[in-house]
Structure formats: structure tokens, C-alpha cells
Design brief:
Blueprint (H helix, E strand, L loop, with lengths): L7 H4 L14 H15 L7 H9 L7 E4 L10 E4 L2 H6 L7 E4 L6 H15 L3 E4 L5 H9 L10 H22 L4 H9 L2 H10 L8 E5 L1 H15 L3 H5 L5 E5 L11 E7 L3 H5 L8 E3 L16 H5 L5
Parallel strand pairs: 3-4, 3-5, 5-6, 6-7, 7-8
Antiparallel strand pairs: 1-2, 1-4
Helix pairs in contact: 2-5, 2-7, 8-10, 9-10
């Protein structure tokens, strides 16, 4: 089903496992997460109403934010779906382009990433939400780092980035782990599970698949799971799709026809999480973020249109 837009505290935890006493701090937590989205993605490209919609909507890992090109469906050209099954049941033309956002982003970051791609492709794009887990929430609460007081705002964002770096390093390490360990790890990642479901949808043609940061690792996990499970037919259907990775070059299990991988020359985070055997383009003067309103951005439009070489 489409995810409802409702009050923040009651919608944040779909499993209902967050103690009621902690709900007053969720607003501050959501604002902190959205703050990182503003750094990583061009959130300004979303309409004010679209930003408000994403901030009010429940954050659920594995959900799909569908963005149409700016203004295509009026002031609000976004829709949020609970999972791949909900998207499949939606009426209208079958979605053909997907992306996986990174850095544990919220709905806001996923929407901004999808909108940037939709503007480039001229058709809607569905971005899978990485979300933010209960364990991270509780550690933040117990550590006292929830409310975004002005003096500590930068420190909170840096702390989150450091945590994401450690998680990304673990993701890279698990790719060389035994088969069952890798499967178990991938199964715990809702974003990778949603992508696997989309790839196994027999009635869906996928023209493009883009990943940013940890989203690239989710793509790698999904492909590995399909390859190891013998679902070669699912991989075959995207062999000619346009696959683009940004900020974390990966090694795909089998050769694909149209793969483009990009890493900013100043991207230390992405460099640490790049597969040593991956082939990629280095973008001069670019860092890890895609927000062109900040210096050293990896300019998504210029990269996909081949203007950086």
C-alpha cells in the first residue's frame, strides 16, 4: 500500500517497537537525518510542498519514493510506496527506472536523488529508501545526541557520517565472506531486499539502475543474492540496463553491457569502500555528495551526460 502521511511520532516505527517514552525525541532525530540529506542531495530541487510531504511521511527502510520530472504531476510530483509489492499494485504505467540512495538517508534524500534522475531521464524514477534503524535510534537516544541544538549540529552530522563509514566498511568485508553469511547479511537490509523483489518482477522491464554511496553496495548485494540463488533469469533481464554507481564502485557478479561507475577524486569515503577490482571513472574536483549547491559536488547531470571527461 501507499504509505500514509501522518503525525511523525506515531508513524516513525512501523514495527511498533519504540517505547512510548522515546517518541518525543523522534522529531529531533528526523530533523538530524534530514540535515544529512540536505548535504548529500539537491533537496532544494524539490518543491516546498514535496519537502514537507517527505518530512511528514514515515521513514521505512525498503520503501520506494517515486519522483516524476519537476512539475510533471503538479506541485506534488512524488509518491511513497511501502515496498515493491505495493508499487506493483499501483495503477498506471509500470515504472522502469530505479535508484538506491545511500548514507542511511530518509525519504527526503531518496526523493531528491530520484528527482534529479527523473529530470535527466524525462520520466519517473523510484528511489529505494535506506532508512534509519531502531538500533541507531536507541544508541543516539542513550548517548544524548538526539536534539539538534545549534552548537552541536555539525558534531551530530559528523558522528552520523563516521557511523555510516564503519557500516559501509562492514558491508564491503561481508562481500568476501562465506555464501550463507553474505545471504544473511543481505536479508537484513530492507533496501537490498526491495531491489531483489523488483528484479524478480517478471512483468517489469528495468531500463536503468543507479546507486549512490551505500546504495551501490545494496545493488551489489542484490545481484550476488540473485546469482547465488540461481535466479539467472532475473539478472539476464537487466543485462542491457543502464547501471550507474556514484561514490562507491562495485564489482558485479557477471559482466553487464552498460555499466558506468564514478568516484570523485576528493572522495575519501567512497575510496575506502571501493571494490579493489572495480573499474571506474575518476571525476576531478569532486567529493562524495551530489548537492551542486555545495563546493566539490559530484555533478550528476554532467556525469550522466558525459560532460566530465
Amino acid at each position: 500500500m501507499r504509505l500514509p502521511v501522518g503525525p511523525l511520532p506515531t508513524s516513525f516505527d512501523p514495527s511498533g517497537t519504540i517505547p512510548p517514552a522515546l517518541t518525543p525525541v523522534l522529531a529531533g532525530m528526523r530533523l538530524r537525518n534530514a540535515g544529512l540529506d540536505w548535504v548529500m542531495y539537491d533537496v532544494v530541487a524539490l518543491q516546498a510542498g514535496e519537502r514537507a510531504l517527505m518530512l511528514r511521511s514515515p521513514v521505512q527502510a525498503g520503501a520506494i519514493v517515486v519522483a516524476w520530472p519537476e512539475g510533471r504531476k503538479g506541485e506534488i510530483s512524488l509518491e511513497l510506496f511501502e515496498d515493491a509489492a505495493a508499487l506493483k499494485r499501483a495503477p498506471g504505467r509500470t515504472l522502469r527506472r530505479f535508484a538506491v540512495a545511500g548514507l542511511g538517508c530518509s525519504n527526503l534524500g531518496a526523493a531528491a536523488f530520484a528527482r534529479a534522475l527523473a529530470n535527466i531521464y524525462g520520466e519517473p524514477v523510484g528511489a529505494i529508501v535506506a532508512g534509519y534503524g531502531l538500533g541507531d535510534l536507541l544508541s543516539e537516544v542513550l548517548g544524548g545526541g538526539v536534539i539538534l541544538a545549534a552548537p552541536g549540529r555539525v558534531q551530530h552530522l559528523l558522528h552520523m557520517a563516521q557511523k555510516e563509514a564503519a557500516e559501509a566498511a562492514a558491508d564491503v568485508a561481508i562481500l568476501s565472506a562465506p555464501e550463507q553469511d553474505m545471504r544473511d547479511h543481505a536479508a537484513k537490509r530492507a533496501d537490498a531486499a526491495t531491489l531483489v523483489a523488483l528484479l524478480q518482477d517478471e512483468g517489469r522491464e528495468i531500463l536503468s539502475l543507479s546507486g549512490h554511496s551505500k546504495g551501490c553496495l545494496s545493488i551489489s548485494f542484490a545481484f550476488e543474492v540473485l546469482a547465488m540463488s540461481g535466479a539467472g533469469q532475473s539478472l539476464e533481464k537487466i543485462r542491457r540496463a543502464d547501471i550507474v554507481t556514484l561514490g562507491a564502485p562495485i564489482l558485479l557478479p557477471e559482466p553487464f553491457s552498460h555499466v558506468r561507475q564514478y568516484l570523485g577524486a576528493l572522495d575519501l569515503f567512497g575510496g575506502l569502500n571501493t571494490h579493489p577490482a572495480a573499474t571506474f571513472h575518476t571525476v576531478a574536483g569532486a567529493g562524495h555528495h551530489l548537492n551542486t549547491h555545495l563546493p566539490f559536488a559530484l555533478d550528476l547531470t554532467r556525469v550522466l551526460q558525459g560532460e566530465v571527461f
